[in-house]
Task: structure prediction
Amino acid sequence: MPTIYDVARQAGVSAATVSRVLNGRQSVDPDMVARVLAAVRELGYRPNAVARNLRRSRTTLWAVIISDIGNPFFTATVRGIEDVAQQAGYSVVLCNSDENPAKEETYVAAALSEQMAGVIIASAGSGKAAKALLESSIPVVAIDRKLPRGEVDTVVVDNEAGAREATEHLLGAGYRRVACITGPEGVSTADLRLRGYASAMPGEPLVVRADFREQGGYDAMSALLSGPDRPDAVFVANNLMAVGALRCLAEHDVNVPGEMGLVGFDDIPWADLVRPSLTTVAQPTYELGRMAARLLVDRIASPSGKPSTVVLPAELHARQSSRLT
Amino acid sequence: MPTIYDVARQAGVSAATVSRVLNGRQSVDPDMVARVLAAVRELGYRPNAVARNLRRSRTTLWAVIISDIGNPFFTATVRGIEDVAQQAGYSVVLCNSDENPAKEETYVAAALSEQMAGVIIASAGSGKAAKALLESSIPVVAIDRKLPRGEVDTVVVDNEAGAREATEHLLGAGYRRVACITGPEGVSTADLRLRGYASAMPGEPLVVRADFREQGGYDAMSALLSGPDRPDAVFVANNLMAVGALRCLAEHDVNVPGEMGLVGFDDIPWADLVRPSLTTVAQPTYELGRMAARLLVDRIASPSGKPSTVVLPAELHARQSSRLT
DNA sequence: GTGAAAGCGCTAACAA
DNA sequence: TTGTTAGCGCTTTCAC
Result:
């Protein structure tokens, strides 16, 4: 691999001049520019970003740490992030924690060690990861889920209102006994959606905690079906678990929506092709990503200043799975 | 941010000793180890990976460049890659080219500049990106799609056989006029699946090219429906396009499988929940990722040596969408 | 407008 | 076993 000195020698100039040409921030004699560019081409020179980052003490990389790469919600959000990042001159490094706090800590440590310019994170709930981020003073934006005891820029949807609306929708359709399958305790989306559900329930709440994954939703639904107090409808606090629940119901020949109503949180790409089509509380994923990225750009530009929290609205998409009559 | 010298001063040792303690490759006096670790903790020291990478002239990062983060095929494959990478001490940096050759080139350039340890790529078809990779001598493994004129380690499924089987399956079910919706010319999966289809077709092939995305599948199906020579079945060369085609058929009230049979390539997570459930040629995604990662580990260990190509079998999952009777 | 030289933070020869 | 020292490749003063 040729270095900047090889290029300098080839062009008959100093390394400083090559650097100036390549970074284009200072004016350089046109002749020299031409010679340098020719030398770059001849040698196939590629600047060493590691050296540049070290010298500049900064990088143009963002770590985007999401908790499940298999969840369409996150992949759609990432698209929004990427579009803004690219425009602002940053590259996005995607990290998949798989809802595993240990993996999440590893990725946070890597982001800090690699001196990344900023972090966007949907925390899997690791207090350690959050602590490391907050202590490091690296610019951080939390998405989807609040960072545990973290005073950072945050973009979320109105989980409580969305969950309440979903529950009221089921009750309004005529279901009597609405259960809730939510996510792990301590994950803000799980707790807030549960609260929204509970606030809309007139009677005793019926709650099962699972892990925000498809199999978890399946198992939770299974437990509800064989439990002592079988519900006639269920609000499921995320999309993958809703799919799992739906599969469980199909396998047990429980008619949806006749015998069991179902509403999920987070849309899925093919909610309308599934039968019965899935009623969901949809989130503005792409916009959420864009907003988070914009906040990060601003935070990098001005690291001090009070963090802001943006709450985006969620919207009920009524489809077949909640249509009792 | 404290440096290794701050730690050294605090612990009353040299920077070299701190480095040795932290990297644990040389034996160090236990007393010193304790002092160093204490100093590290007190100062909240975190090694600067950028400096280390520069000094060592290598990194422990892999760039995994996929062409569509919204495609479950790729996300499942990434899981397999990650598991092997982690075990081998590498971190995975995921890059989404969005089927856009320009983006792909950008990511390849970044991977090279950042001195990444290796690249796993499902090429969006950019000859330029392939050229840059091959010239650089960075370890590369191609997945899913062959790298344009690239002699590199490759993991693919048997696209031609899978497509042939899908087509024969439709013909065997009693469909007469089977069309094919495939991907962009020059992308090996698109061309090979087309070839497999054509080899199984007794009569004149009926082919539409699209872009491997859902909307493309929708539009292609639309064109087939209104074309002069309407088919009674269609083999769709990837999963997202199959979903698009299905949606198009649903919106046009074309009965599937009665009026139109459908087989897709690549499974989708909810193929069995969609109605009609989707017949697909499924690929061993997770295993594909693991295999690619293992090849990359080997290639990094021994950069010379002939590249190998691994062909994994694809498997037809017959469901409702191809059941004529 | 250009070049010489210092130094980003770390690791690895080499000496002691 | 430990410390001294050089240098990875680049950018950025500082002098000219």
In short: Chain B touches chain A through 47 residues (CB under 8 Å). Residues 13-17, 20, 26-29, 32, 51, 53-57 of chain B lie near DNA strand D (CB under 10 Å from a C1'). Residues 72-88 of chain B form the longest helix (17 residues).
